[in-house]
Batch of 4 targets.
Target 1
Amino acid sequence: MFQLANILMMAPPPNGQQGGGGIMSFLPTILFFGFMILIMYFFMIRPQQKRQKEHQNMLASLRKGDKVVTSSGIHGVIEDVEERTYIIKIADNTKIKVEKSAISTRI
């Protein structure tokens, strides 16, 4: 198989054409990669940015008394809002302090 590839690479181009078509030979390749980057942006990067923005808005709107679920799966009610943390009541006489980023959803 390796020998066949070597033979094909050494064969002259069909119809006496010579290689080195200049920039025009790279144009389809450049367009293809540009199209792939555009597809990746619309299907991967943009939706992730949208979800992240929605999560930031949800965190900013949380208030005392809201029922929440942390990223580790703990359910509770917000008892106090501090600058970077929330104090969450998870049971009678049981409160925990979590970072704002640890809140995954509001119930």
Target 2
Amino acid sequence: MITPPHHTTAAPVLSDSFGRVINNLRISVTDRCNFRCRYCMPEEGMVWMEKSELLSFEEITRVTRLFAELGVTRIRLTGGEPLMRKDLHLLVEKLSPLPGIRDIAMTTNGFFLAEQARLLYKAGLRRINVSLDSLDPVKFNLMTRRDYYGKVWEGLHAVEALGIRPIKLNAVLIRGVNDDEIGAFAYLARTKPYIIRFIEFMPIGLGDGWTNEKVMTSKEILETIEHETGKKLVPVERRGDQPADRFTFEDGLGEIGFISSVSEPFCDQCNRVRITSDGKLRTCLFSLGETDLKQLVRGGATDGEIKLAIKDAVWKKEPGHLINQPSFTRPERTMSQIGG
């Protein structure tokens, strides 16, 4: 029988009742976004949180320090669109020197990168993922409901010029919408310093029209890439400490990643938890319950009390999501409200 981690005296390790070690924390800094991606949120009717509801940079730093003391080593800043949070580089400056934090990354839609990339890099950000679901401007506008294709590429060029590596492009493929661009994405991976990561379409947005039939599985995408490029994909890392299964082309030119959340769930090796922008700890993207860390922080709780709440929540982390099972229930929050 596994003993809850706060009953042990071993070196700091944050783990759940299934023996999974949690060392990766995703922090949403805002629920706001200037895009309206079809798989994430409705086009109209989003109600944003008041600034006072969001964790301050100081509060985020305190909570992150406590997670680091419990064994978390990797941080990812998300949103909404994280760069809509004013002066985000100041938060990165606060997080970078925290003992135990070895890696700070960010997922962004890329719109503000051209203006902010240099400040973020100077502050300590070293890895950037940009969401880019189409390489066709018209289709990009259809998927994001915004005419911002050129701005995203300005941002990518700015990041590339700074020498930030790796630069990962996240693409959600939807059958019948953008699944005809697989070959174009593969070509990009082979000709530019971008790692293309295909993420299976998940049921997480209000009005997203998700059905299993619209999911392009990783297996289908891999087969299409090999057919269109005439090159085999060779596994580099499978079921590792990140959600993507990584492949390179047989000639060594280009890397492709697959996040197969629907067809091949990796829940049994999940090493992540997330904090929403209003300070709720969620142990799974599809959690139906949350732990209110903001209430503890603002209510005068000690570091020890907050750590205990974190350990208790993580210990109860779900065995996995239930997509494709009869008992699956969508979370009440959209992806932008949870944190991408």
Target 3
Amino acid sequence: MSEEFKDALIECEKEPEVKFSIPFKLILAISICVTGLVTLIGILFFISGSIDKMWSTNQINIFLYDSLFFISTFCCFISLIGIAVIKKPFSKILVWCTMIIGVLILLSAFMFPRFKGYNCNFTLYSKGSFILADGKLFMIGILGILFSMVIKYGFIYQKRWDTTI
């Protein structure tokens, strides 16, 4: 075999290297730092909330929304770490984390109104003191699931693009 042919075979076997722009790298690094910090704060929040039994007080709305925020931020942190490690904008980790966030928010829309003292301004259906779902969380959850499906298509197209190069 000639040297040129060997080089061509080796060149075809390499996966194309993705180079993120400097602004993207900077925003990614800042985002990882911020979401990592918020994740640590979330852990402390859960510890102090458990000690103080915040869910049993009249601050249930604050506790529930903050819990949802911290869990969602943790999923974002995992996704951002995945992007930095894999060096590709779309990945299975990103698809799964966005799906988890969407499903958690959607489930929260139905679960949060079951807690005594929970207040919401926009409901899907209510009769007397019964509230089927928090309308704001329902809308955000559905949009989150839709967004995760869009990311899944992006991941599929990225895989196809990688195999054609």
Target 4
Amino acid sequence: MSSDPGPAALMPTAIRQDGPRHLAITWADGHESRYEVRTLRLACGCASCVDEWSGEERLDPDAVPQDVHPVKIEPVGRYAIQIDWSDGHTTGIYPFRRLREIG
């Protein structure tokens, strides 16, 4: 039996702030993922944070404030969210499949 959630399970039914340092996503299959927000910021996979060709991380963790937090979360189609961060970073897209994997 595979533990990989099917496509329907990868749709969030709720995204909410869970205290000052966490973000919670409830998925269509009832599973809830809880993310420490700074860890989520450090997991950004955009071209500014990760080299597109080599996959090497470009983001210096020391450059991300300890109190970084989402200031805006927007849907991207039916497959991802985009998070605008308090440190000014706005280009990261977090696909639902990736969020489910890291959550």
